[in-house]
Amino acid sequence: MREKQGRIFEVAARLFAERGFGAVTTQQVSDQADIAAGTLFRYASSKGQLLLMVYNEDFRSALQTGAHRARDIADPVGAITALLRPILVAAARNSENTIAYQRELLFGPPEETYREQGLALVAQLESALAEILLTAVADSGEPTAAQREAARVAGRSLFAVLHMALVRPSTGVHPHHDPIDDLSAQITQLVAGFRATAVTRT
After folding, report:
1. What would the pLDDT profile of 163-183 be if each residue is shown by its tens digit?
2. For residue 149, what are the contacts with CB-CB under 8 A and spacing of at least 6?
3. The pLDDT value given to residue 123
4. Which residues bind DNA (predicted)?
5. What CA–CA distance (Å, rounded) separates 161 from 30?
6. Domains of the chain (ranges plus CATH)?
7. pTM recorded for the entire structure
């Protein structure tokens, strides 16, 4: 079973990288993985699920890289930027696939295994963002429950900003702006807003 799943993953990853999400079919994946189409659907029920299978691993790897880079950065803006930058860099390798992945991740069938795994990665990212934000108020002592809730909400806002940066090629918005520079400016604003409100929460 693992050997078949490994073949499916390898073929799907290669085809998506070579042709892009729109040009790949499940039949091509099953043919090149040398398995029946019915067998393929036991592992991934649709092309969107195949993409989630592949890109969840890219997301996980980028998240691990970013977390490692952010670990020793004291400034929250710098730490958050370091955490998110590898995700943007990985996404830029194939905008079409990234946009399709974000669509499947946020709007795909709720019961699908690979979507659940992807959303768990989003939750992990949001939690990491919230913990970094809490360092901005660490000098006032142990964070209160209200501050933790504010950090949780701000972490979700930061993911929303990241999502818009990832799908920007499909919207045509601000085509001449560097996405990393824009994201850094938005991070700065959100951190400043969190700092301004969190210090008053008890």
Report:
1. 988 888 776 666 677 777 888
2. none
3. 96
4. 25-44
5. 36
6. 1-43 (1.10.10.60), 46-199 (1.10.357)
7. 0.90
